[in-house]
């Protein structure tokens, strides 16, 4: 798959899965997509191991954009990218955008064959700054 | 450091976190999401479970292994933050550090934690304990004095307004509560300082 992959990371598996459903409704199977949520022990939270797994699942040579909810999801996602290491880490970006709108907009941009930079820019446009 | 000594440090750290897990959770419930005690306990029990294997490694590798285990098991933002602290210490410490080497490595590790959390001292976080601990270490203070400095620094987060993490959502309402990460950092500093003094 040459389209940019999308990874959704929420503290809640229900939020992550629901967001992924909304993305699929827009782009079908044209975009590599994976989600994870929960601390891996049945509670709310995020797991570095699960995020690394989701990045692998949604991997594309065009890169992967990660959409996160609250702070810990961002910190854990950045940690996961660092642990995946070079050279792949250069093609993974944690987006600063609202998780649902960001994931749907980023995936729609990706489905048209946009580059990682363009996909990330589309997500970032949604963020007040 | 001898394997038995590193094992003792792991046990001391895991013991204090387990003994104070409910207190840490209560602090986090007041101004956070209330999972800090349970998350830290899970992480340090996972480290304890591999204490023998970790302790058999040279000190830098042992610290990196502790940090990686915390990253993988804590399950909240504390995982990468405390994990980064230990991983960075492992990266910068020589196998048999003296006080000067420990001070230098702690300074670099604090920078790594600040970068990971996009934070700095004064924002009601673990950095508000780490920084005074670094200064006490640099000033040649005893283990007991360093542990006291850590406790006082955690106490000093009470009147602060949180500017990072979940507590920052509360704005002014975060004032009047101790930061849970600052408290767990002070607990770890005291446990390690007392254990090192006994070695």
TrEMBL record, chain A:
Stored Pfam families: EIIA-man
Domain PTS EIIA type-4: residue ranges: 3-129
A GO MF term: phosphoenolpyruvate-glycerone phosphotransferase activity
Gene Ontology biological-process annotations: glycerol catabolic process; phosphoenolpyruvate-dependent sugar phosphotransferase system
Superkingdom assignment: Bacteria
Gene Ontology annotations for the cellular component aspect, listed alphabetically: membrane
Gene3D superfamilies in alphabetical order: Phosphotransferase system, mannose-type IIA component
Xref: PROSITE patterns: PTS_EIIA_TYPE_4
InterPro entries: DhaM, DhaM_N, PTS_EIIA_man-typ, PTS_EIIA_man-typ_sf
Keywords per UniProt: Kinase, Transferase
EC number: 2.7.1.121
PANTHER family, A to Z: PEP-DEPENDENT DIHYDROXYACETONE KINASE, PHOSPHORYL DONOR SUBUNIT DHAM
Record function comment: Component of the dihydroxyacetone kinase complex, which is responsible for the phosphoenolpyruvate (PEP)-dependent phosphorylation of dihydroxyacetone. DhaM serves as the phosphoryl donor. Is phosphorylated by phosphoenolpyruvate in an EI- and HPr-dependent reaction, and a phosphorelay system on histidine residues finally leads to phosphoryl transfer to DhaL and dihydroxyacetone.
Record text on subunit structure and interactions: Homodimer. The dihydroxyacetone kinase complex is composed of a homodimer of DhaM, a homodimer of DhaK and the subunit DhaL.
Protein name: phosphoenolpyruvate--glycerone phosphotransferase
């Amino acid at each position: 798959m040459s389209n940019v992959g999308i990874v959704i990371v929420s503290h809640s598996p229900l939020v992550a899965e629901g967001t992924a459903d909304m993305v699929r409704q827009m782009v079908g199977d044209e975009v590599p997509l994976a989600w994870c949520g929960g601390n891996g022990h049945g509670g709310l939270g995020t797991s570095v191991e699960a995020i690394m797994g989701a990045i692998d699942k949604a991997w594309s040579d065009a890169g992967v954009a990660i959409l996160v909810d609250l702070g810990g999801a961002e910190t854990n996602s950045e940690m996961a990218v660092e642990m995946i290491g070079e050279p792949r880490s250069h093609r993974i970006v944690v987006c600063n955008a609202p998780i649902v709108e960001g994931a749907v907009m980023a995936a729609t941009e990706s489905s048209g064959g946009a580059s990682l930079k363009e996909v990330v820019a589309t997500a970032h446009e949604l963020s007040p700054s | 450091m001898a394997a038995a000594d590193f094992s003792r440090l792991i046990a001391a750290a895991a013991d204090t976190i387990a003994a104070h897990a409910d207190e840490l959770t209560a602090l986090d419930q007041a101004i956070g999401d209330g999972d800090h005690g349970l998350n830290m306990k899970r992480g340090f029990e996972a480290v304890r479970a591999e204490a023998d294997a970790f302790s058999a490694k040279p000190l830098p590798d042992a610290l990196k292994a502790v940090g990686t285990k915390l990253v993988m098991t804590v399950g909240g933002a504390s995982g990468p933050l405390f994990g980064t602290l230990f991983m960075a210490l492992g990266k910068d410490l020589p196998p048999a550090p003296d006080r000067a080497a420990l001070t230098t490595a702690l300074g670099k590790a604090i920078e790594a934690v600040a970068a990971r959390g996009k934070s700095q001292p004064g924002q009601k976080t673990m950095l508000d304990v780490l920084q005074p601990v670094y200064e006490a270490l640099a000033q040649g203070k005893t283990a007991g004095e360093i542990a006291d400095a850590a406790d006082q620094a955690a106490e000093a987060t009470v009147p602060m307004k949180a500017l990072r993490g979940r507590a920052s959502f509360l704005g002014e309402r975060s004032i009047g509560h101790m930061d849970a990460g600052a408290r767990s950092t002070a607990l770890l500093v005291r446990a390690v300082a007392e254990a090192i003094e006994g070695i």
